[in-house]
Amino acid sequence: MSPIPLKIGIIGGGAISELHLNSYQNNSAAELYAICDLNESRAKQKAAQYNIPHLCTDYNVMLQLPDLEAVVICTWNNTHADIIMAALDAGKHVFVEKPLCTTISDALAIQRKTIETGKTLQVGFIRRFDPNVQMLKTFIDHGDLGRIYYAKASALRRLGNPGGWFADREKSGGGPLIDVGIHVLDLSWYLMGCPRPIAVSANTYNKLGNRSNIKNLAFYKTADYNPNFNNVEDLANAMIRFENGASLYLDTSYTLHAKRNETSVVLYGERGGTEVLPETWLIIEKYNTILNARPQTDQDGLNVDAAFQEQTDHFVECCLENKAPRTTVEHGVEIMRMIDAIYESSRTRKEIKLSKGRGMES
Ligand SMILES: NC(=O)c1ccc[n+]([C@@H]2O[C@H](COP(=O)([O-])OP(=O)(O)OC[C@H]3O[C@@H](n4cnc5c(N)ncnc54)[C@H](O)[C@@H]3O)[C@@H](O)[C@H]2O)c1
């Protein structure tokens, strides 16, 4: 059992770190103890803003702090694997922003290291922690929708390539699929009960570039925005088949000639359906009548602050009480396997079969 408050180190003080820093500040069982960023002035600014006693530009220096218990990794995707491995070797618990890493081989090595060290590893699939998602999961777990056999997930931006490292495949591992599509893919898969994927057929397109010429519309940008380089896909779509017979259709874009942005997740079961996003609906049949029921909750869609707080509180609790997190390393590996197969299917123009024995149980 780790001592309270749990001493936390944040690695990467860019755009998303703010939400993590705020939620750790609100958790009385945790203490913001150290911050690291390659960009020293960014680390200094965050240390001052959040009253963090230790700061550095090399995460290996942070990992030597003997009282540091856990790290939160908010860096470029291609750095996740090395930082996770070093942190686990140093005996720290790890929270890593999505994606777990950028290759299957790294994902499997991380899984082995997590088991070997017995440390907590939680992956940042934030949407599982949204209050509406947990509410809908209660209905699903009680069998109100029956077995879910089809899901549709979209994360379509008409304009929204974040630039900088996000647009550089070497650093990001891919485009909208590994950045925003991953959220709706994971959310659907989680609510379907995490069935084992067996085949993937997919397409990716690089048709429109990053469209940095467009004026009058704001969008999410990396802390080091640079529109001058872009070699990631701007659209991906995929059909994923699962061992239990269920299937999932996914599409995701950084830019598309679409009328508006669209984030939607809809699940269809044998007894009922649910719209998870953008609105919250349950579709059921009763006495030969179809009912579109509207669960009454504080807000539709993702409640970002509540989800981040819940995600953080859960990580702290798992570290302190040695519990398995809701978003396990096995789930991170399996999502990586689906993403990898989507890119391979697009490259080879073939359906990719995912062999039995690999993935969650490997
Ligand atoms: N959960 C979500 O909804 C969500 C949203 C945005 C980003 N993310 C994820 O969070 C991570 C960071 O994204 P961001 O938008 O904050 O990017 P960002 O570019 O704004 O910030 C990344 C920061 O990491 C620092 N950094 C990079 N490599 C480092 C290293 N080796 N050591 C120390 N610092 C390093 C950079 O200097 C930068 O300050 C990514 O993995 C991204 O996929 C998640």
From TrEMBL:
Molecular function (GO) terms listed?
A: nucleotide binding
Q: Which Gene3D superfamilies match?
A: Dihydrodipicolinate Reductase, domain 2, NAD(P)-binding Rossmann-like Domain
Any idea where the Gfo/Idh/MocA-like oxidoreductase N-terminal domain is? Answer: 6-125
Ranges of residues in domain Gfo/Idh/MocA-like oxidoreductase C-terminal:
138-354
A Pfam family cross-referenced in the UniProt record is GFO_IDH_MocA_C
Judging by the UniProt lineage, the source's domain of life is Bacteria
Q: Which SUPFAM superfamilies match?
A: Glyceraldehyde-3-phosphate dehydrogenase-like, C-terminal domain, NAD(P)-binding Rossmann-fold domains
Q: What protein family does this chain belong to? A: Belongs to the Gfo/Idh/MocA family.
Task: Report the protein name in the record.
Answer: Putative dehydrogenase
This protein's species is Falsibacillus pallidus
